């Protein structure tokens, strides 16, 4: 029997398990390894951080669901992948062998690269649900004792949508608590302009986001390198187009949430041929690692080069729809290999994002990622908030049901009027 192992039970890994199980039609065993027993819906973390959701609302106990689908589950987590011997060492000292491995570990959060950054230092995070819970406690304290807020992302980050989203969600939550008038908000970002998003803008994201920030009284600093974070003071260097420092800012804060840079997780970092210097999984257009062709990568853990040059490092986002298309392509390709055929499915890697403001929001679609594009569209409205709630409900329903339909294909793309987007492209057989 073919053994397929999936490393990581996040947004990509869980649906990967469901899709490959369906595709192999009983002709293979599927096992998923995760750090811990639960799935957690990361896009809801901004809401957890202001008390609009509880952790229990957005997490799912995986063991019973996976057992029902006859998918093996190892919640011990992986210590190290050994691709040259097709095996994985788990944190409890046991090992698992595979014929095909799909790496879906998401990011390691590089807080240690900046002094004072992160929940163990002086800023909050919304990258994990337990971080978001802690950020909620700090938010409650902010409501009790209002003061300045600094929100944004540091140099090397690749996830700007959630940074903007959180600035607007915070603005809404502080207005609801009737203390917004005592909380000046500054948005700090390494992007060369507001709305760049690691994609050199999509449609008019620059105009839409600048105008929304003006309307919501959020000031911003772009081309901003976060030098260090002391208790209550962020030290920021603003650089020019040549990368030279043109201004230094000391930003006092009562509350701060900054997204860190991402890198690959320790279990795969530094494996020659598998990962790049930052620890991201190297893949070809079939999601397959060139050095170890029975290993595939999906989601935030894969290496994607930046879109053009910027004065400070700005990464490309890997959003839900893009990840779902990577999953579908990988399921096709592994099934083809098992059947003795060549992999032919190519994920389109379209960037679709809904950035919620709490009462309204901004949506964008970039197809393909690199400009010039066939679809380069952004829009603002109350419907975005509703669509994001739909995304959460539908995705959690899908995980709980053990089903692998694609949310964006079925609902969001209809709403966005871009149904013509395909999730994958199948190359003709030679
Ligand atoms: P993850 O969902 O992070 O899952 C990785 C899994 O791997 C985790 O369960 C982790 O425990 C596990 N793992 C890690 N290391 C190991 C190991 N050694 N052994 C075993 N398991 C391991 N995208 C959107 O499209 N819309 C949004 O609204 C949106 N909001 C976001 C908000 C935030 C705050 C962030 C950070 C991202 C957001 N994204 C959003 C981007 C993206 O969709 C999510 O980050 C998504 O969760 C990425 O999926 P993933 O499967 O790659 O990684």
Automatic annotation (TrEMBL):
Keywords: FAD, Flavoprotein, Membrane, Nucleotide-binding, Oxidoreductase, Quinone. Residues 3-302 form the FAD/NAD(P)-binding domain. It is found in: Membrane. GO terms for molecular function: nucleotide binding; quinone binding; sulfide:quinone oxidoreductase activity. It is a peripheral membrane protein. Pfam families: Pyr_redox_2. It catalyses: n a quinone + n hydrogen sulfide + n H(+) = polysulfur(n-2) + n a quinol. It comes from the Bacteria. One of its GO terms (cellular component) is membrane. Its cofactor is FAD. The keyword Electron transport does not apply. It is an enzyme of class 1 (oxidoreductase). Its EC number is 1.8.5.4. Catalyzes the oxidation of hydrogen sulfide, with the help of a quinone. Consecutive reaction cycles lead to the accumulation of a polysulfide product on the active site Cys residues; these products are released when they exceed a critical length, typically as cyclooctasulfur. Belongs to the SQRD family. This is Sulfide-quinone reductase. It comes from Amorphus orientalis.
């Amino acid at each position: 029997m073919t053994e397929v192992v999936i490393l990581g039970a996040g947004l990509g890994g869980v649906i990967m398990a469901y899709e490959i199980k369906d595709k192999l039609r009983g002709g293979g065993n599927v096992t998923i390894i995760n750090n811990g027993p639960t799935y957690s819906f990361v896009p809801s973390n901004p809401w957890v951080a202001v008390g609009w959701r509880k952790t229990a609302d957005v997490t799912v106990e995986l063991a019973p669901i996976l057992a029902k689908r006859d998918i093996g589950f190892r919640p011990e987590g992986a210590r190290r992948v050994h691709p040259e011997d097709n095996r994985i060492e788990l944190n409890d000292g046991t090992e698992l062998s595979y014929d095909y491995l799909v790496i879906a570990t998401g990011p390691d959060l590089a807080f240690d690269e900046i002094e004072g950054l992160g929940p163990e230092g002086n800023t909050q995070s919304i990258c994990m649900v337990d971080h978001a819970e802690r950020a909620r406690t700090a938010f409650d304290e902010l409501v009790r004792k209002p003061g300045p807020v600094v929100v944004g992302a540091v140099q090397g980050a690749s996830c700007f949508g959630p940074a903007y989203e959180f600035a607007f969600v915070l603005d809404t939550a502080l207005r609801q608590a009737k203390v917004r008038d005592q909380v000046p908000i500054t948005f700090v970002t390494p992007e060369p302009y507001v709305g760049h998003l690691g994609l050199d803008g999509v449609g008019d994201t620059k105009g839409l986001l600048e105008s929304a920030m003006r309307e919501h009284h959020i000031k911003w600093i772009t081309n901003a390198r976060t030098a260090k974070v002391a208790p209550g003071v962020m030290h920021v260097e603003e650089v020019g187009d040549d990368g030279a420092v043109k201004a230094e800012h000391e930003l006092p804060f009562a509350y701060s949430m900054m997204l860190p840079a991402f890198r690959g997780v320790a279990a795969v970092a530094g494996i020659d041929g598998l990962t790049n210097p930052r620890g991201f999984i190297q893949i070809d257009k079939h999601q397959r690692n060139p050095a170890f062709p029975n290993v595939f990568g999906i989601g935030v853990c894969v290496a994607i080069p930046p879109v053009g040059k910027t004065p400070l490092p700005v990464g490309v986002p890997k959003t839900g729809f893009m990840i779902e298309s990577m999953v579908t392509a990988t399921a096709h390709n592994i099934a083809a290999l098992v059947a003795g055929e060549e992999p032919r499915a190519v994920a389109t890697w379209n960037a679709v994002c809904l950035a919620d403001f709490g009462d309204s929001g901004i949506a964008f679609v970039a197809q393909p990622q690199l400009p010039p594009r066939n679809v380069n569209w952004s829009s603002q409205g109350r419907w975005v908030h509703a669509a994001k709630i739909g995304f959460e409900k539908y995705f959690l329903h899908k995980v709980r049901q053990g089903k692998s339909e694609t949310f964006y294909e079925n609902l969001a793309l209809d709403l966005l009027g871009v149904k013509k987007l395909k999730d994958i492209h199948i190359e003709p057989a030679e």
